[in-house]
Inverse folding.
């Protein structure tokens, strides 16, 4: 497979592993509505935020949509990942987009995207799918990058979205009216996308000129170019005309035997006088309940850039032009993605959240079909996250006045979200657990690092049982105040008594029991006979 190389690649291919696991703290003042709805908005760099969320959501997300910086040369995006490479250190903190003449601009963009895409893939369910908005600046690089990370067989489509309705007559060569939405599956064999609702236009093609009791129908050609060994035979029309065979260079698409069955069932249309070449009748009542999405999304169906700005403007009526979010996507565009890629109950992720269109579209869709999709949004900017992303969500949840006009109330969509920030890393530079880490935080982390699966449910330490994944059960003996000290009285040591008191395993369980604790006084022989693996905190915890 052809591979893309760029400056800094070696330094970032494993960078996602080095990123520390951080704590996530919720801020109830900036949250809104039902905080338990499962929706999250995390303020922070998505590299760190994704790593922090992985123990809770790995393999659980059905649909990811991202709209990263396009690297146009006009945006102020910053590449400041803490990568251990002299060259990258030189780049750190530099404004990248504004330096359009910086030859390493594309290298930096690729360095920024690579570890994020690696982490995003970890979140997807087996039948999950990712959609990425991009324009011509990085499209070609992105597809190669995705081929490398997701695999070339995971490619689904590059959708062309008509982003503007006009033509720019001052364009140098060709007026740019569309951008791309690149789509890859986690596992193409497991992916299923929903059909789109049939539009009125589609149904109007169906008529019933022969008053068929099965209702309106349309007809399709019964011949095709594909060679078909049973597809060459003569026919006689009902009017008695002899037809020697299919048109030159073509084949009937059904065998003679099947043709006769279809004709007997009045599924062949010979024209009103019974004298035409035969066509196959296709009944509206028998076609699928929807249409397959195509790769060309027109603004009349899914909105355009101007519509997106108006949407944001009508919610933030008090803002002036300069402070309004300048690059939102239309809600209809994200709804189209949700329509084909999600079902009620699915988790949707957007780690470049901007004005929060994805969250808005999720709430909107839930309101419409009674679903309970959840969103996880990440936005890095310290002002945008609370004042734009969070505030938009708050307003659409609670209701607002369109354009600030009291005579135009917009009913709230309901739902809610938690606003979170990233805290300290779980482990310090010596690998010791940070003092702020609770039992619940550490339990999620050890479960994920042990099993590779997200914790089945949050635990508070009232029992040492963290959870089961397949043939593994994980326990944690950890006392927050005694962190770093093995003390039997604190309950953080695996003693014979503690071992005997561990919660029972489910009937028939014959797998491994892994106990994380500060110390162990049980003999190696007894551990072996009991099927227990002891792992010492913090040294045996991955990521420490
Ligand atoms: C093009 S905008 C997304 C717009 C969004 N789709 C909407 O409809 O409003 C990209 C957003 O990603 C944010 N961003 C850029 N780099 C980020 C990072 N490393 N982590 C999290 N957010 C980031 C920017 O602050 C910006 O708000």
């Amino acid at each position: 497979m052809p591979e893309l190389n760029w400056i800094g690649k070696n330094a970032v291919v494993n960078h996602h592993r080095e990123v520390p696991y951080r704590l996530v703290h919720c801020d109830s003042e900036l949250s809104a509505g039902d905080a338990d709805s499962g929706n999250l908005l995390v303020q922070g760099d998505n590299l760190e935020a994704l790593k922090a969320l992985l123990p809770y959501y790995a393999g659980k997300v059905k649909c990811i949509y991202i709209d990263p910086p396009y690297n146009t040369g006009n945006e102020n995006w910053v590449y400041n990942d803490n990568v251990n490479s002299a060259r990258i250190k030189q780049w750190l903190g530099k404004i990248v987009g504004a330096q359009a003449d910086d030859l390493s601009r594309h290298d930096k963009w690729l360095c920024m995207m690579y570890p994020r895409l690696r982490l995003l893939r970890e979140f997807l369910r087996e039948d999950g799918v990712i959609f990425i908005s991009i324009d011509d600046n990085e499209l070609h690089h992105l597809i190669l990058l995705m081929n490398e990370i997701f695999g070339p067989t995971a490619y689904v489509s590059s959708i062309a979205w008509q982003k503007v309705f006009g033509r720019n007559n001052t364009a140098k060569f060709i007026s740019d009216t569309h951008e791309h939405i690149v789509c890859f599956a986690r596992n193409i064999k497991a992916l299923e996308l929903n059909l789109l609702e049939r539009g009125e236009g589609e149904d109007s093609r169906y008529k019933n000129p022969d008053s068929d009791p099965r209702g309106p129908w349309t007809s399709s050609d019964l011949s095709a170019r594909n060679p078909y060994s049973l597809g060459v035979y003569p026919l006689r029309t009902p009017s008695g005309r002899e037809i020697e065979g299919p048109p030159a260079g073509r084949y009937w698409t059904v065998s003679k035997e099947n043709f006769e069955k279809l004709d007997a069932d009045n599924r062949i249309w010979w024209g009103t006088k019974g004298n035409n070449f035969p066509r196959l009748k296709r009944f509206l009542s028998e076609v699928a309940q929807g249409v397959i999405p195509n790769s060309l999304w027109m603004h009349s169906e899914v909105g355009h850039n101007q519509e997106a700005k108006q949407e944001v403007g009508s919610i933030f009526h008090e803002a002036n032009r300069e402070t309004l979010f300048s690059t939102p996507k239309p809600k209809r565009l994200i709804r189209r993605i949700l329509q084909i890629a999600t079902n009620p109950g699915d988790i949707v992720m957007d780690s470049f959240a901007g004005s929060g269109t994805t969250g808005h579209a999720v709430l909107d869709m839930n309101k419409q079909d009674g679903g309970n999709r959840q969103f996880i949004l990440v936005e890095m900017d310290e002002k945008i996250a609370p004042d734009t992303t969070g505030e938009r969500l708050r307003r659409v949840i609670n209701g607002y006045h369109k354009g600030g006009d009291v005579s135009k109330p917009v009913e709230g969509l309901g739902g809610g979200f938690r606003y979170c920030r990233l805290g300290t890393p779980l482990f310090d530079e010596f690998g010791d657990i940070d003092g702020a880490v609770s039992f619940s935080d550490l339990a999620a982390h050890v479960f994920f690092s042990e099993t590779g699966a997200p914790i089945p449910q949050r635990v508070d330490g009232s029992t040492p049982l963290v959870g089961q994944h397949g043939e593994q059960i994980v326990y944690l003996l950890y006392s927050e105040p005694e962190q770093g000290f093995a003390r039997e009285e604190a309950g953080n040591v695996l003693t014979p008594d503690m071992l005997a008191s561990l919660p029972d395993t489910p009937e028939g369980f014959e797998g491994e029991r892994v106990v994380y604790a500060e110390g162990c006084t049980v003999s190696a022989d007894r551990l072996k006979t009991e099927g227990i693996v002891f792992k010492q905190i913090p040294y045996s915890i991955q990521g420490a």
About this structure: The two ends are 35 Å apart (CA to CA). The chain has a mean pLDDT of 92. Residues 427-536 form one domain. Residues 105-123 form the longest helix (19 residues).
